[in-house]
Design brief:
By secondary structure, this protein is mainly α. The protein is about 55% helix and about 0% strand. The chain contains 4 helices and no strands. The longest helix has about 50 residues.
Length: about 150
């Protein structure tokens, strides 16, 4: 640990006990631990910031290389015109509106009993209409302050 041999570490402990005293040694160790923790946190944030900057610089370099390669590939192989070699009939087919949607089934569809058990059975009291502003909303009757049993 930090290049300190066990016998040197033992000597530091003995000197600390003599200088600080056994009574105040726990408080001193606690304070030293807090300082070491703060130093580690600051160094961790600093290291993370440096690593982020390095990663961003590498990504910018890679993006620049990719753009250069992409430009070279696109210059060597231009994209063909989609209308090249296409007949007039095929071009008009692309502009036709889509076919109509299929009609709803004439027979009732089977419903899963588990889904039907939790499906709402009553229609909504009020139809869902357009949104009203808070000032335009009708007032709702408020319940009395009693507690639910």
């Amino acid at each position: 640990m930090f290049g300190i041999a066990p016998d040197e570490f033992l000597l530091v402990i003995i000197v600390a006990i003599i200088v600080i005293g056994p009574k105040d040694l726990p408080l001193a160790l606690r304070t030293a631990g807090r300082w070491i923790g703060q130093i580690r946190r600051v160094s961790g944030h600093f290291r993370a910031g440096i690593e982020t900057m390095i990663r961003e610089a590498e990504m910018e370099e890679m993006e620049r290389k990719w753009k250069e390669q992409n430009a070279a590939i696109m210059a060597a192989n231009p994209a063909p015109d989609p209308a090249d070699g296409q007949t007039a009939e095929a071009a008009t087919d692309q502009n036709d509106p889509p076919s109509a949607l299929p009609a709803p089934p004439s027979e009732p569809v089977a419903v899963d009993p588990e889904v039907a058990a939790v499906a709402p059975t009553e229609p909504l009291a009020e139809p869902l209409g357009e949104m009203l502003s808070i000032a335009e909303r009708p007032a709702r009757p408020r319940s009395s302050g009693g507690s639910a049993a």
